[in-house]
Specification:
The protein is an all-alpha fold. The chain contains 3 helices and no strands. It has one domain. 66% of the residues lie in helices and 0% in strands. The longest helix is centred in the first third of the chain and has 16 residues. 14% of the residues are buried.
């Protein structure tokens, strides 16, 4: 069984890192969106959290 709390924490950590100015690696935006969708499908994040994460990713995709 998957630990939903761990999935949520990892996803938030990845997005926080990607949105920061000192992120060292380029990450494919579609990969991040896919992980958000996965986290939502397994119930690790709510609809509100999903929308907020997608918004953050789309706002910072120039950095990615």
């Amino acid at each position: 069984m998957m630990d939903k709390k761990h999935v949520r924490e990892t996803l938030n950590s990845i997005i926080d890192s990607c949105c920061s100015d000192d992120f060292l690696y380029k990450v494919d935006v579609s990969w991040i969106r896919g992980n958000i969708a996965f986290a939502y499908m397994i119930g690790a994040i709510t609809t509100f959290e999903k929308e907020e994460l997608l918004k953050r990713v789309s706002e910072s995709k120039e950095v990615l």
